[in-house]
Amino acid sequence: VTENMRSFRNIFLYECLFALTFWKHCSLSVENELFISASNDFPEDGSDKKIKSLPLMHTNSHQSKANFDWVVIQNTTESLSLSEITNGNVKKLVSLLSNFRQGSRLQNLTLTNVSVDWDALTQILQTVWHSSIEYFNINSVKQLSDIEKCNFDYSGTSMKALTVKKVFITDLYFSQDDLYKIFADMNIAALTIAESEMIHMLCPSSDSPFRYLNFFKNDLTDVVFQNCDKLIQLETLILQKNKFESLPKVSFMTSRMKSLKYLDMSSNLLHHDGADVQCRWAESLTELDLSSNQLTDAVFECLPVNIKTLNLQNNQIASVPKGVAELESLAELNLASNRLADLPGCSGFSSLEFLNVEMNLILTPSADFFQSCPRVRELQAGHNPFKCSCELQDFLRLERRSGGKLAGWPAAYVCEYPSALRGTQLKDFHLSELACNTALLLVTALLLTLVLVAVVAFLCIYLDVPWYARMTWQWTQTKRRAWHSHPEEQETVLQFHAFISYSERDALWVKNELIPNLEKGEDCVQLCQHERNFIPGKSIVENIITCIEKSYKSIFVLSPNFVQSEWCHYELYFAHHKLFSENSNSLILILLEPIPPYIIPARYHKLKALMAKRTYLEWPKERSKRALFWANLRAAISINLPTSFEANEDESD
User: Where are the bilayer-spanning segments (predicted)?
Assistant: First the structure.
C-alpha cells in the first residue's frame, strides 16, 4: 500500500470513528479487499493497527444485524452501500451523509430495504442532493406516512442519476402531484423508477435536463407526457411493461421530444387499426422497440420516417404491405415470432442490412430475397416450419450464393414438412434437378413420349399390328353374326377332316397330288377346299373362318409362294387363333418347298414360331419316300367324323 493510500485510509477511519461513535461497525476496502470491523475499541491516534478485522464473507450476517442498528454492505472510497434503513436510524444516516460534501470522493450510494415515512425519505434525498454523490440507487422502498407537498431545493447538486426500484406506498389518499412533482422537476440527466406500480408521471414544470428516463414495469397509460414540451433534451425513454394501448397516442407523446433517439415500448398492449389516424413521431427518433405487443400489418402505416432500428418481434404481423411504409433509413428490422408466411421484400426499406424473421410460419422462403434486398448483410430466418420440397431448392441455392449471410446456418434450418423428413437439416435435403425443374421435366416427358410413340409405330409397322387388329375385329364380327343367325347352335359340328390352305401357284400340286391321295381308298378323308366349299354370298373372310371351324385339322402347304399370299396369311392367322382359343392340336404343316428365312415377311412371325416349335411334313422329291409321307399325313388327320354328317354326304353324292 502506497503512502497516499495509507494516509487516506487513516483519515477515512478517523472520519468513520468520528461520525459513528455510537455505532459498533465500520468497514473499509483497500485495494478492492473488503473488511468488516468487529471491535468497539478504536485507537485514539486514528491508526488501524489494533483494529480486529475479518473478511466480510466470513462475517455472520444475522449476528451483525442483531448487534448493529443497520448492516453496512459495502463502503469504499467511492461507493457506499447501506441496508435496513428505518425511521429510527434516518438521523444517523443523514448525519453521516452530511460529511460527504461536494468535493469528497464518495460518488455512488445504494440504499436497500428502506422503510421510512415521507418526511424522512425527502430528507434523505435532499441531503444526497447537496453531497458529492453522483449516482444514487434506492432498492425496495416502503413509504409509511402521509405524502405531503415538499419544497425541494434542486440547486447546487452533483447528482447525475437516480434509480428507484420496488417502491410500495401505504398511503392510499394523497395528491398525485405531491408525489410525482418532486421527481419530475429533478435537474439530473437520468431518472429510473421501476417496478413500482406507478400510474402517472408529470411533465416537468420547466425545460428539463433529463436525457434518460426509465419507467420499467409500472402502470403508466396513454396519458403520460401528452402535450409535454419540456423534455427537449431527452434522448432515451424506456416504458417497457406498462399499460399503453394506442400507438398513435404514443407517437403524439414523442412529437415534442426534439432530441429523442431511443424509445422502448415493448411488452405493452399496443395496437393500431389504421383507421385514418395520422401518427406524428419525433423526427429525431432512430431506434424503436415495439416487441411483444398486439400490432398487426397496419403498424407499417404508423412508424417514424427516420427510424434506423425497428423491433417488432412477437406481434401479430402476417405480412409487410408494399407501398405503405417508405423507411429509407431503416437498417435493422426484427420481425421474429410473428405470422409471416414469406420473406418480406425491401421495396420500402432500401437501406436494410439486418433482418430477423425467425419463428414465423415460413414454409418456402422466396428465392429472390437478396435480389430485392441487395444491401442485406445478415438474414436470420431459422426456426421456421420449412417444407422440404422443390420450391425450397431455390432457397438452398440462394444460401450457397449468399456468402454466409444466413445467420444460424445450418443448425437453425430444419425440415418440418413432410413428416418423413421432419428434423432433417436443410443442408442435407436434396432433390434431383429433373424432379424440381418443371420445364426440364416436361421436355423429358415429351421426348420419352415421342420415343415411345416412335417405337410403338415401328413395331406396329414391322409386326403388321394393324393387320392383326383388323383380322381380330373380323373374327369377332363373324362369330357375332353367326351366333345371332343361329343362336340354337351352341357348338360347331365338325364336317371335314381338314381344311386346305395353299397358294394358287401351288394349286396344281394340291389338285394332282394332295386331294387324290387323301380322298381315295377306304379311309377317305373329307377335305375342305375353297373352290368346292366356300358358300357364295358370304365374304371370303367369313368363309375362311367357317371352314376352319368346321374342320378338325387345318393343312398348310408351305412354300415361297405361300408366304407371298395375303389370303394364306389370313387362313394361317385364323387357324392359329383356333389353336389357342380351343387349346387343340389342329395344325398340320407341309413344307412343299424350302423357304429361305429372309423371304418370310415380318408379319409372318407366327409362321416363324410354328416352324421353329412344331414338327412339319416335308414333301420328298424321291418317289420312294412318298408312300411314307402319305401314311404320316393320314395318321395326323385320322379322326372319325359324326355319322349323321357322313350319311348326308353319301346321300348327296
Answer: 439-463
